Amino acid sequence: MPSQTPLRPGSLLLMLMASFWAAFCGPPKPTAVPGATASGRPLQEWAAVEAGLQSTDANQRADAILAAMEFQYRQAGPRLLQLAQEDEAANVRQTAAIALGQFQVKGAGPILTHLLQNDKAVQAEYIMEAAARLEDKRVAPAIVPYLKSDLNNTRLIAMQTLVSLNATSQGPAILKLAQGLSDPDQSRAAVMALGKLKVQRAAPWLRQLAQTTAPGPNRAAVYLALGRIADKASAPLLIEGLALEEPRLRENAGKALILIQDHASLSAIFPLLESDNPEIAYNAAAVLSEISDPKTRQQVLRLLNQGPPQSIGPAALVAGRLKISASRLPIEKRLADKKSPDREQLAQALGWLQEKASLPLLIQVLQEAEGTGRLGAAW
């Protein structure tokens, strides 16, 4: 995804990534293990690791840090603090920073902040990962500027780290940064952060952005952010999004409306069930299925009995998912007619209703020699 690959400090960083998987996946490792670890590294006693941390060779110091992480030698904390601040080798400083995060060493926050703000030789992506492991919100202000990095991968890591830290106090700073970015691609990570951190004050700006951003992934991100903020004022423009041609926009508009749960907007969604585009109709049905409201029952029964052919399947889906029992007979009537459209969805709707009275008809449909109704009946 990034437009260019960040400079890697060689084989040590590959070893570092391997240690990440070993250290962060699964249950915590014991402080001592017999023989060798799953990574193949022979057991190193603390005395040997401690000596490596004091080595005059940068590669040996970095390798000793990896060993300390591998064997959970938390007593290395004081030396790691020193190495992260003072070591002349950038790969040692950033490896020590990651170990500080893994061990959640007290006092590491200011060091990570300094590295992010002042040390251009280390890779910010790894320092942000360390900050996420450290779980120290005080590092968050130093992460915010990376939301406007030229590298997409860096922006995404910054967003993920801020969300991991639940850095809600940085909402105003993130919003100010986002408003200053003219490139929608560059601002997408900040938009995502605003949504995931539920920054309510960002809602007016996001609504404006949804109206001015060209259809595509950036507008889709804005839709989802509005949903996560639960901004009811955005419901009308999200409903417009349900009828757009681009699938990702329809999908995210639907997700946002489900998150918002605005019952007042339901009346504007029902007409979409009659769309000639089945993807639009069924996406609208998926939204209505997740917002339970007494008005839905009347509208669905009306469509099942009197609606145009293209609305029957979507309406049946809503009725089934919401378990509107009065819909069983109209759905069965439609399903029994082999000329009805969307018979697969009609049969599925009966499955959602879970009423045993429908079993004879479903078995009959299942035994048909052709048609898609069999698939729904089997489901």
| N→C terminal distance | 39 Å
SS field, number of helical segments: 23
Shape: elongated
**Rg (C-alpha, Å):** 28 Å
**Helix-strand topology string:** HHHHHHHHHHHHHHHHHHHHHHH
What are the segments in which pLDDT stays under 50 over at least 5 consecutive residues?
1-36
Task: Kindly state the number of beta strands.
Answer: 0
Largest sheet: none
How much helicity do the residues have?
Answer: 55-70%
Query: Structural class, please?
Result: mainly alpha
User: In what range is the share of β-strand residues?
Assistant: under 5%
Mean pLDDT: 90
Strands, helices and their partners?
Elements: H1 11-24, H2 46-53, H3 58-70, H4 77-86, H5 90-103, H6 108-118, H7 124-134, H8 140-143, H9 152-164, H10 171-179, H11 184-196, H12 203-212, H13 217-229, H14 235-242, H15 247-260, H16 266-269, H17 278-288, H18 294-306, H19 309-321, H20 328-336, H21 343-353, H22 359-366, H23 373-378
Helix pairs in contact: 1-3, 2-3, 3-5, 4-5, 5-6, 5-7, 6-7, 7-9, 9-11, 10-11, 11-13, 12-13, 13-15, 14-15, 15-17, 17-19, 18-19, 19-21, 20-21
